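Hypothesis: this fold can be encoded by more than one sequence.
Test: take the structure tokens below, design a sequence, compare later.
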């Protein structure tokens, strides 16, 4: 079984690499991934999958399915980029001239590995006459609107038995940590414009309100729990100092360990916004962009993924890749040491501190994670497992130009092919071993403890607003 799955992925390796490089070059922002989603859908369509585009009111969300009936194995694909971190696949800073966005979270690799695994799994089931459905979820805007959350609310996962996913990272390891619950909002302030020198007394500055809100949040920060995170950028602050800005906008992430922890924290942030509007006689309007729940781990799936990772083995990197990684690390002094510290007891397993060439043992202590992901929402409705494969130089920070460089390099390609095999191996076990599916389901129910998933979408909102406008600041 494993030979057939590996063979199917190896046979397509050049195609998968070319596809990931195309998505990498497009580097499309959330809900604007038209070329990337179309190419992935075309790849799966050509392999015999039926395609449903425009899932959950999002043009770039799709579901590709093959087979019929149960068991239904779900594989998650992402393909959105981040603004302002483009870079050539070289070990130094060199932005891509015609596109400021970049795959600094490796989603070009993420989606393609899952698509490769879906095709390999389909071929195995077809060849062996195994019943079931392989479903690939094309999930847009993971970085902003949290596309999967909208798809969960739309019922896209309602009949899925098991969901498997991965993320490019610095190590080869099962992800058993949770992730932070995250609400993403834009805050709009409306004031009154005026000549800033001739009649400022007639104006009311929206920018003043925005600055006061940010200042208020800074005072709130001291009193948050240590694992909480708040960060923001200013997306509109006026255009000329001699015009009183009648409009200003900030873009916020508010994160806490769980959704119940997040609710009062977010309420406080909104109160600060309302307070800032009162102080400046402006109007405050929050705009929901997306929300991600914290992730629910699953030990049964974790064990299956661990066995699959060990069976596939780590990607094998050559001297050129090691040199590339070392050069990149030079731009982030101390990054490898910090990554080792974060690994705690597992640090002793790392052999090469340039690129991870080992599979780490499973750490099932369920530490809280630092980032957020909409995989969290999926994990509350379907038993879900995740792992990471080494696609970056060890310890370099994600969401940076350096991660973009790795995602377009052979380091990323090798990690991606490893991930595709791991997903396929694990998927095949859930297709052929009903006992494993039942055990994963049972653990899921136990962890849920009767909790019923509820989305964080405010009443009256039916589709995600465009998180980055048209991608060009408009
Ligand atoms: Zn990501």
């Amino acid at each position: 079984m494993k030979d057939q799955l590996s063979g199917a992925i190896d046979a397509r390796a050049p195609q998968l690499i070319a596809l990931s490089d195309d998505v990498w070059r497009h580097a499309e922002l959330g809900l604007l991934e038209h070329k990337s989603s179309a190419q992935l859908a075309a790849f799966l369509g050509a392999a015999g999958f039926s395609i449903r585009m425009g899932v959950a009111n999002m043009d770039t969300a799709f579901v590709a399915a093959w087979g019929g009936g149960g068991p239904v194995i779900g594989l998650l694909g992402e393909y959105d980029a981040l603004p302002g971190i483009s870079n050539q696949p070289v070990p130094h800073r060199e932005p891509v001239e015609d596109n400021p966005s970049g795959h600094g979270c490796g989603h070009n690799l993420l989606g393609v590995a899952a698509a490769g695994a879906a095709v390999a799994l389909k071929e195995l089931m077809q060849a062996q006459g195994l019943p079931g459905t392989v479903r690939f979820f094309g999930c847009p805007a993971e970085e902003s609107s949290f596309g999967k959350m909208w798809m969960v609310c739309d019922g896209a996962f309602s009949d899925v038995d098991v969901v498997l996913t991965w993320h490019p990272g610095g190590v080869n390891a099962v992800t058993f940590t949770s992730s932070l619950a995250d609400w993403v909002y834009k805050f709009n302030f409306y004031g009154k414009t005026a000549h800033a020198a001739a009649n400022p007394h007639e104006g009311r500055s929206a920018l003043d309100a925005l600055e006061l809100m940010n200042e208020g949040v800074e005072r709130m920060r001291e009193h948050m729990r240590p694992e909480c995170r708040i960060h923001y950028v200013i997306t509109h602050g006026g255009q000329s100092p001699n015009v009183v800005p009648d409009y200003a906008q900030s873009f916020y992430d508010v994160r806490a360990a769980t959704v119940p922890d997040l609710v009062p924290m977010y309420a406080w942030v909104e109160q600060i916004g309302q307070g800032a509007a009162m102080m400046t006689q402006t109007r405050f309007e929050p705009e929901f962009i997306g929300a991600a729940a914290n992730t629910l781990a699953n030990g049964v799936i974790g064990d299956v993924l661990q066995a699959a990772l060990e069976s596939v083995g780590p990607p094998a990197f050559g001297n050129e890749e090691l040199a590339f990684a070392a050069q990149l690390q030079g731009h982030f002094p101390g990054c490898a040491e910090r990554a080792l510290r974060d690994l705690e007891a597992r640090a002793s397993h790392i052999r090469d501190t340039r690129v991870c060439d080992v599979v780490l043992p499973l750490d099932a202590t369920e530490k809280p994670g630092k980032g957020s992901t909409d995989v969290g929402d999926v994990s509350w409705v379907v038993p879900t497992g995740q792992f990471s494969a080494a696609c970056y130089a060890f310890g370099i920070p994600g969401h940076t130009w350096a991660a973009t460089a790795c995602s377009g390099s052979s380091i990323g390609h090798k990690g991606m092919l490893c991930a595709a095999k791991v997903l396929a191996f694990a998927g095949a076990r859930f297709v052929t071993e009903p006992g494993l599916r039942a055990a994963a389901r049972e653990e899921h129910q136990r962890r849920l403890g009767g909790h019923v998933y509820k989305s964080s979408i405010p009443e009256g909102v039916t589709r995600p607003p465009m998180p980055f406008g048209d991608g060009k600041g408009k």
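The mean pLDDT is 96. The two ends are 51 Å apart (CA to CA).
Hypothesis status: open.
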